[in-house]
């Protein structure tokens, strides 16, 4: 018998984008300080794509799972036990986010369906670290695998 860990399924679509963003920042000191003591589950669903991203923060670890968003039952609160949910019309809404800490921003600017804005804001501040890191000119762009 081998002692290999079970292989994680490869993230696809929008979930892969979020996974790459999280992987680019999860080892930074700033991120570690932000997630210390946090516990949440947030589902981000891009209506344009076929995949949603379930982001779980627990025990000072961030994990991202890809969830097929069709049929709608796949992304239900009852099935996934999420605490925050944001269904947005396109990626532009997420990628231009800079003011994640302000809950009003999520309701005014975000568009789409929002449940648990405070939970979304917690995860959003962490994602914003990756987005701002991506914008730094001396850094390599984040590679998105199809």
First-residue to last-residue Cα separation: 34 Å
List low-pLDDT spans: none
Major sheet size, sense and barrel closure: 5 strands, mixed
Radius of gyration over all CA atoms, rounded: 15 Å
Backbone shape:
globular
Could you give the order of strands across the largest sheet? 3-2-1-4-5
Q: What is the averaged pLDDT score?
A: 78
DSSP, total strands:
5
CATH architecture: 2-Layer Sandwich
Instruction: Write down the CATH topology.
Output: Nonspecific Lipid-transfer Protein, Chain A
Protein structure class: alpha+beta
Q: Number of domains in the coordinates? A: 1
State the helix count.
6
* Beta-strand percent range: 15-25%
SSE order, one letter for each helix or strand:
HHEEEHEHHEH
Helix amount, in percent?
25-40%
What's the CATH first level?
Answer: Alpha Beta
